[in-house]
Design goal:
single chain, Beta-Lactamase, five-stranded antiparallel beta sheet, five-stranded mixed beta sheet
Length: 589
């Protein structure tokens, strides 16, 4: 019996899928690490990533080498299916190679085009132009604040400081709209005036005497502030005037990113050729494991494809050698499983036909023996019996002239002759019944009712033997000839009773079983007798073989023939000192 499953292949494919996912994750992480290192932003490489990236292809390559060595050994030992397996693997490898070459060419060309596009001179010019515009904007703003705060207009604007502060602020905005706030301090550092955006107000002055010229840029969480301070004298008093502007939101971060991007661009452009080579190298470095995975998948799929074919080849050889018990079990539901099912049905039919043929040959042979034996023995039996009876009658009617010793011998011998002739005649009747056993007239039979009927007849043969048929379902139906099936149970129950001279128990039970795509009623007849000795177990069903002193040896032979005529099967299980169980399979009614 051979069982081949697809579970191993499913587990293998699942493992390869997980490996493929791991490989994709490794590619993403490693590619990001490479770009970071090439850009020079992060100099600390992930050592684990590098180790895995190198060890992973080596592991896959080792598995493939192992599979190749295994395949070479299979071919060297001429293992069935090894040549077909080799051709399939080569075929899969060629497909993987032919599909990867165009993809490699396309990817390399795409990488080259992408690098040329990314590192195009206009992109660098745009980055430099953007950075230059940012710097110019910054410098222009600083210069604007400086020139305005130091211009000759400022003294005239400050004349409204005491009279009308609102008009002062309005005039400032009219003259220079880029000024977003103005703050005026007295000589003692106290604030005289503040107008405009409150974000620009100076607070907590430490050293008022340093408050002149372009003040340091102040960076806050979400804003940058530019200021310029100038000192003016008005009405005999000295004032410090601070004007300023709030830079656009996130101006510093954007300017810094522009600077960093330009630095990265310059480095990539400087190592453009090396960068291209590195990307191409790592493309092939990670494409190679994928190619190795495809080869491993080809080994796995090849095993799945050729396994049923190899099993069929082996099964065909075993059947050709005469082993009709060989079966192939397959769990999948594809075309190969249908082929396997057809093969199993064919072997089952061949096995059944061979059993039927052997039984028919055995029956035919013993029928011929029975006919010849009956012909050879029957003719002299009647004259022998009549002669013995005549002698005894004649002796009884004649005078007693003989000795008493002769009388004793004669009276003992003549009945023995008659008795043995009767036994021979019974034997001939059994042979005749065996030879002339008719074909069964099939009909539906209630199994429990039939067994109880036979059991009732044989229960009285031994008071110490009980027959239990309660484990037979009341609706158990079999298809057969009632008289012949009754004879089967009569012979089996009689034999079981004879093996238990001191008493015991016989149990009869049944169940429905599926066998070879058919449904049978399986019947167990179990006794608690002495069991069948091992040396005669192979001859139990042979005609004219018996271990009993008065048996004819045809009871079980007739049982076997009736069961086979009903398209059933019979066998037994026995253990000396424990008992014997005869098992019968009959088609369901």
């Amino acid at each position: 019996m051979r069982l081949f499953q697809s579970s191993t292949t499913s587990v293998g494919l699942l493992v390869l899928i997980l490996i493929f996912i791991l490989l994709i994750a490794l590619i993403v992480v490693f590619s990001q690490q490479i770009l970071v290192n090439l850009a020079g932003v992060d100099e600390q490489a992930n050592i684990v990533v590098y180790v895995v990236a190198i060890a992973f292809p080596l592991i896959l390559l080792g598995l493939i080498v192992f599979q190749i060595v295994r395949l070479i050994r299979e071919r060297a030992t001429s293992k069935p299916g090894s040549r077909l397996k080799t051709r399939l693997i080569i075929f899969f490898m060629l497909i993987a190679l032919l599909s990867s070459i165009p993809q490699a060419l396309l990817s390399v060309n795409f990488i080259n085009s992408a690098i040329n596009f990314w590192l195009e001179a206009r992109l660098g010019d745009a980055l430099r132009g953007g950075l230059s515009i940012s710097l110019e904007y910054y410098r222009g703003t600083v210069e604007n604040l400086r020139s305005f705060n130091q211009s000759s207009l400022m003294p005239f604007v400050l004349q409204d400081l005491d009279r009308n502060p609102e008009r002062l602020w309005k005039n400032v905005r009219t003259v220079n709209s880029e000024v977003q706030f103005i703050q005026i301090f007295a000589e003692d550092g106290s604030e005289v005036l503040f107008r405009g955006d409150q974000e620009g107000r100076l607070r907590n002055l430490v050293r008022f005497d340093e408050l002149t010229g372009d003040l340091p840029k102040e960076d806050r969480e979400d804003v940058s502030i530019l200021r310029n301070a100038s000192v003016y004298e008005l009405g005999g008093r000295q004032y410090t005037v601070v004007v300023g502007r709030l830079m656009p939101e996130d101006f510093d971060n954007k300017a810094r990113r522009l600077t960093e991007s330009l630095e990265i661009f310059n480095q990539l452009n400087r190592y453009k050729r090396l960068f291209r080579l590195v990307l191409v190298f790592f493309y092939f470095f990670f494409s190679f494991p994928i190619f190795l995975l495809s080869i491993l998948v080809s080994f796995l799929l090849t095993e799945e494809i050729i396994r049923p074919i190899v099993s069929l080849e082996e099964a065909t050889r075993r059947v050709a050698e005469g082993d009709f018990s060989f079966r192939i079990l397959h769990r999948s539901a594809d075309e190969l499983s249908h082929l396997v099912g057809s093969f199993n049905r064919m072997v089952s039919e061949l096995s059944h036909s061979r059993e039927k043929l052997r039984q028919s040959e055995k029956i035919s042979a013993w029928q011929e023996i029975a006919q010849r034996l009956a012909h050879e023995i029957k003719n002299p039996l009647t004259p022998i019996k009549l002669s013995a009876q005549r002698i005894l009658k004649k002796y009884a009617a004649s005078p007693q002239t003989e000795s008493e010793e002769f009388q004793k011998v004669l009276e003992a011998s003549i009945p023995a002759i008659v008795r043995e002739v009767d036994n021979l005649n019974d034997l001939l009747v059994e042979f005749r019944e065996f030879a002339r056993l008719p074909m069964p007239r099939l009909q539906s039979i209630a199994l429990r009712e039939l067994v109880e009927e036979v059991a009732e007849m044989y229960t009285n043969l031994s008071a110490n033997v009980t027959i239990d048929s309660s484990h037979i379902s009341e609706d158990s139906l079999i298809r057969g000839d009632p008289n012949q099936i009754k004879q089967v149970f009569a012979n089996l129950l009689r034999n079981a009773i004879q093996t238990m001279p001191k008493g015991g128990e016989i149990s009869v039970r049944s169940a429905v079983v599926n066998k070879e795509n058919r449904r049978y009623c399986r019947i167990w007849i179990k006794d608690s007798g002495e069991g069948i000795p091992e040396e005669i177990r192979t001859r139990v069903f042979e005609p004219y073989f018996t271990s009993k002193r008065q048996g004819t040896g045809l009871g079980l032979a007739i049982v076997e023939r009736i069961i086979f005529d009903h398209d059933g099967n019979i066998w037994f299980e026995t253990q000396e000192g424990v008992g014997t169980t005869f098992i019968i399979d009959l088609p369901l009614g």
